[in-house]
Amino acid sequence: MPPPPSSPPGSPPCPPTPCALVLVLGDAGRSPRMQYHCLSLLPRYDVTLLGYSGSPLVPPLACGPPGFQARLFDPSLPLANARPLRRGPLLPLYYLLRLLSVCSLALFHALRPGSAAPPSSPPSFLPSLLPSRYDLILLQSPPSLPALALAYLLSLLCGRCAVVLDWHNLGYTMFPDRPGAWRAVRALVRWYEGLLGRLLPHASLCVSRAMRAWLLENFRLAHPVHVLHDRPPSLFSPPTPARKHALFLKLQASSSLSTHPLLPSLPPGQTLLTASPSLPRAGRPRVIVSGTSWTPDEDFGMLLDALVELDERQGGNGAFPDVLCLVTGRGPMKDMYERKFAAHPFKKVSIRTLWLEAADYPTLVGCADLGVSLHTSTSGIDLPMKVLDMYGAGVPVAAVGFECLPELVQEGVNGRVFEDAGGLRAILEELFGEGGEEELGRLREGVKKGKRWEENWEEVVGEGVLPALPAARAPALLLAAATVAVLLAALKLQHPPLLADW
């Protein structure tokens, strides 16, 4: 990370660039909103992204822009040999050990020496205790456990530095609401989330107006709460025909598309969508793209049922185009649904699952005629992030309806809303059938009218949140010394090699 700019001779020294910590206690590569925060903060701060390793970062961060560093770690390493604890009565002990392990690793990577620019105002005797200090902590919730407690401790170590909490959802709603121990856990997490949600941040962000109203009414937040709707970033844009052609040539050679039944009949150099780098292919299939994490909060069976109905109704209709459904993502239910896909003898429809390089994903989204969102919120007040990828690429969306979805998807303006498989099937028949291209064109025009992430972030955060944040004070030295001592002891037991980096 470059040093702060030097001052001309005889002039006052330039203040050092302030440092921001963006905290994601999850796979950082699967949190695009927090990565977009990093990009937006960079002109004002040197930014450290702290999170779990796994998925690649978005290309603008993966290339290592000046002022940015990623401190990513594997949270499973300290408990790699603790499988017997994951069953039966010892399961609560496993979860407790895992929380402590994550906290010790996150603290180590947050505070260890690195290439970050020096903090803006540390006392001269602190670097030996706290090699890294921050002027701003921006964290994501959920997961609220242990992220809120960890951020509170870090903020105290940094002199109660400014903290901004970005509410993506309500963490407690991810615990089952059923009688017995789980209901008690859910109630405890809700209390913890509300308490630290009031005490920790100087300002909060949230993804919908409905969430803001809920937080103010139920958690009684006294600090400013700003609605920062997700918007597509500039890295998503409609791809050129040449990019579409190059991507499909690549996918047809090396992915599940290589088994598509239409490929043997294509002339050399053509793809399912394009006749050449500049021309679409006559008779091409209509393309649906759906990004999913293959978890129960996305009812992928609804899309499968809709496609089965569509195939049964249109399979013998020569005027109706073929339909290619491309599903991206990884998750626990993927194998189960792939077996279900294979069990159906489709005529007009084909379904393929893909895992793409980060640089190829925006192009694939832009190849779609229609995006499909199956996200149903556990709280009813968050919004599906994948829809923004589609809007950024100029693609309208069909989304399953829930309470606050109209804040993002307006029926008949930039997308369509359905409630069940029959409703989705009817939308596909309308938009892909005779006269449907005209309606798709109107929806594409509606998509173009939305703001981009950069403009929206500057209005809400750059102009509304950051100027009102307080400056950090002197850190609590006794707390810092105690924390570092406990951290070093924990690392000595769990990860002795890490101490060499301290």
Automatic annotation (TrEMBL):
Pfam families: Glyco_trans_1_4 (PF13692). Keywords: Endoplasmic reticulum, Glycosyltransferase, Membrane, Transferase, Transmembrane, Transmembrane helix. InterPro entries: ALG1-like. Coiled coil: none annotated. Pathway: Protein modification; protein glycosylation. It comes from the Eukaryota. It is found in: Endoplasmic reticulum membrane. It is a single-pass membrane protein. This is Chitobiosyldiphosphodolichol beta-mannosyltransferase.
